[in-house]
Every structure is written in structure tokens, then in C-alpha cells.
Design goal:
mainly alpha
Length: 299
């Protein structure tokens, strides 16, 4: 019996030894640099990353691809994505962060629109001042557009404490439909835009979607101002029912604004509207608002 166990042990050790010998040796930084070429496929790149001997070797490979003018667009796109993942290990990635940002800044003004998009996306996620300045210049028309204006607005709006609010207000007034929508969303963090948001919310010549976006941003910027606008929108029978529904739902979930409009007069309007409207969604919103005002324990 003992001989059988020993034979099994030896066979297992032999199997492990052969398996280890069959594995390729991890790629050192020098071997990676020697093996890399502009012609390598995605599969070959992936294999090199997997076989790299250290995290640092893999990151160096990816950064070298970004700096290589001969590397293909697809290789650089893949490198940005993988480096973005590596950045989630901030301590290990810290020695490479400045170089990664520098490469992204270069790619943000490249001729390749996909690379520009991904580079500016990453830069604004990192709150990079150069990336934000490039987007401002693109929107202001002082340089050739790097990404579509709506995209530039959305990226720039990630900085809630930045100084782009005046630009967003101008875009909210004069931009294309998609740009205006992104600008209105961005202004939710700006109390100085209350007047403009109130104006757009109540302008019946505007599209309902634009008015709703303005109203929701107004709710975030100033619940008091939103309550005043919302009351008028809800009780006006000539208003768009979808807009009235969205506004009333927002009142139900914003206690400060709901408190400001609640009372016998507003309740009477809601009872009348509920009895007259053909909109099931509006009736549901009325019920939701009424329930939100009920004292706790009486729902």
C-alpha cells in the first residue's frame, strides 16, 4: 500500500515539474521591448501583458505604445483602456501617472477622433486642467473642435466646482438641441443660474424635454425657486401633461419644495385636475404627491 502511495506522489511531482518546464518564462521589460512591434495583433499584445513578469513591465509596455508614432490607433486605444484599469491600483500606478497624463494630453489633440475622445474622457475623469482647457477652447471656438460640442459639454461638466458655468449658460441659450440639454444638466450645480433655469422652465415656446431638464436642474440649484415654478406648471391646464407629471413627481420627492407648495389651495387644484385629466400618469403623480404629504403612520 505504501509503495502505491509513493508511486502516486512521484507521478504527481513529475507532472508538476513537466508543467512548470512547459510554461514560458515571464517576460522581462527588456524582452517585452524587444518583442513589441507595430504589427502585433491584439491577441499578441494581450499575451505579452499576461506574460509580463511584473505590473511595472506591463505598464511600461502600454506607455511605450502610447508614445510610439508607429503604433496603430487600435493598439493605442487598447493601451489607454488597460492603463485606465491599472490606475485603479493607485499606489503601484503612482510612478507612471504623470507620464500617462502627458501621453493623454498629446493624444487629445491628435488627428484620430477615437483617440481624442478616449483621451479627453480619461483626462476629465482625472480632473486634469489641461484637458478641461482644451474642451473650453473647443466649445468657445478658439480651436478646432476636438469632440462633438455635446460631448465636450458633458465632459467639462464633470468638474462641479469649475469656472465653466458662464459658458454653460451661454450654451443653454444658444447651443444646438443636444448641447443645450447637456448644458442645462451642468447648471444644476450653479445657484447663479436660477434665473435662467426658471425662465426656460416656464417658456412654452421651448420643447417640453428642455423645459423639464431646466426644471430638474432648478430643483437642484434652488428648491425654493423650483417650488414657485413647479406650482405654476402643475396647475396650468394648458401645460404639457408629461411636464406636469414630472414636475409633480419631483415635488413629491423634494420635501423642501413640497412643503413650499402644499396647502389647501394647492390640494384643491390637485383634486380638480385629478377629476378632469385623461392622463393616467398625471393622476398617479397626484396620488404620489398626496401620499408624500400624509403624516407618518397615516399612509
Amino acid at each position: 500500500m505504501s509503495d502505491d502511495i509513493e508511486d502516486l506522489r512521484k507521478a504527481y511531482v513529475q507532472e508538476l515539474t513537466e508543467e512548470r518546464r512547459a510554461r514560458p518564462k515571464p517576460l522581462s521589460a527588456r524582452r517585452v521591448a524587444a518583442a513589441r512591434s507595430p504589427e502585433m495583433s491584439d491577441e499578441e499584445l494581450e499575451t505579452m501583458l499576461v506574460d509580463a513578469d511584473t505590473f511595472e513591465t506591463a505598464v511600461r509596455l502600454l506607455l511605450d505604445i502610447l508614445a510610439d508614432e508607429a503604433a496603430t490607433s487600435d493598439q493605442k486605444l487598447r493601451a489607454i483602456e488597460r492603463l485606465g484599469g491599472a490606475a485603479f491600483q493607485p499606489v503601484r500606478f503612482a510612478p507612471f501617472h504623470a507620464e500617462f497624463v502627458e501621453r493623454l494630453r498629446e493624444l487629445a489633440v491628435s488627428d484620430d477622433k477615437q483617440l481624442r475622445f478616449l483621451a479627453l474622457d480619461r483626462l476629465t475623469l482625472d480632473d486634469d486642467e489641461v484637458g478641461k482647457q482644451l474642451l473650453r477652447e473647443s466649445l468657445e471656438g478658439t480651436r478646432k473642435a476636438l469632440v462633438p460640442a455635446a460631448t465636450a459639454t458633458r465632459f467639462l461638466a464633470r468638474d462641479e466646482h469649475g469656472d465653466a458655468a458662464p459658458l454653460f449658460r451661454e450654451l443653454a441659450r444658444t447651443g444646438s438641441a443636444r448641447v443645450r440639454e447637456e448644458a442645462l444638466r451642468a447648471l444644476a450645480a450653479d445657484p447663479d443660474s436660477v434665473g435662467l433655469l426658471s425662465e426656460i422652465s416656464t417658456d412654452k415656446t421651448e420643447r417640453p424635454k428642455v423645459r423639464e431638464l431646466a426644471a430638474m436642474s432648478l430643483k437642484a440649484a434652488s428648491p425654493e425657486a423650483f417650488a414657485e415654478v413647479a406650482r405654476g406648471l402643475v396647475i396650468d391646464d394648458d401645460e404639457d401633461d408629461a411636464l406636469r407629471t414630472a414636475t409633480l413627481s419631483a415635488l413629491a420627492f423634494t420635501p423642501e419644495a413640497g412643503d413650499a407648495v402644499a396647502g389647501p389651495a394647492f390640494d384643491a387644484h390637485l383634486d380638480r385636475i385629478k377629476g378632469e385629466t385623461s392622463s393616467r400618469a398625471l393622476r398617479t403623480s397626484i396620488d404620489r404627491f398626496t401620499e408624500s404629504r400624509a403624516p407618518e403612520g397615516n399612509g
